[in-house]
Each structure stands twice: as structure tokens, then as C-alpha cells.
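Onboarding guide, step 5: your first structure request.
Type a short instruction followed by the sequence, for example:

Predict the 3D structure of this protein.
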Amino acid sequence: MNNDAGFFATIWLLISKYILPLLPGAMGAAVSLSFLGDGINRWQKLTSFAIGFFFAIYVAPMLLELMSLKGEHVTPGVEFLVGLFALATCRELFKELNNADIIGSLKRKFLG
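The system replies with C-alpha cells like these:
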């Protein structure tokens, strides 16, 4: 019986250390799926979730460091928001890049 308690304590320790900190970003990415509309298939939804989730994992710590934000409740909040807005931000960034006349702007700036 004692071994079972130790096993479950170890499992809970692993979950609380490695899985629970990922939940805010995952939830933000999951909530963002509701804004995508009905016109996408499962693979597109899965890819969208993965993009938001990975942005929350890798971009949120960078933003927290860049803005010097600290706090027990600030970190999960920023992770949630990054997961939520990552896909929309990427979509708008790609739209702007596609619509921008980068070569023309560079020519006008440097060649007159």
C-alpha cells in the first residue's frame, strides 16, 4: 500500500511540474479555435492549435523577459493570451507581408 502512495505522489509531482504549467497556453490555443470559423478541417484545426501552443511555450517567456514582467499570476495570463492571439497575429502578419510592396519600397527609398 505504501508503494502505491509513493507512485501516485511521484506521478502527481511530474504532472504538476511538467504538465500543469503548459495548460494556460494550451487553453489559449484551444479558445482561439472557436474564432476560426467552420470552414476548416481537423488537420487545419490541429495545426492552428499547435501554432498557438508552441507560441505560448516559446514566445511568452521572451515577452515576459522583454517587458520585465514577473509574478505568479502574470506568467500564466501572458501564456494564455499568447496562445489565444498567436494564430490571429500570424495570419495578419502574413496578410500584410503578402500585400506589402517590399521591393518597391526599397527601390523608392534607396534609388529615389
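Each response can be followed by summary notes, for example: Residues 2-111 form one domain.
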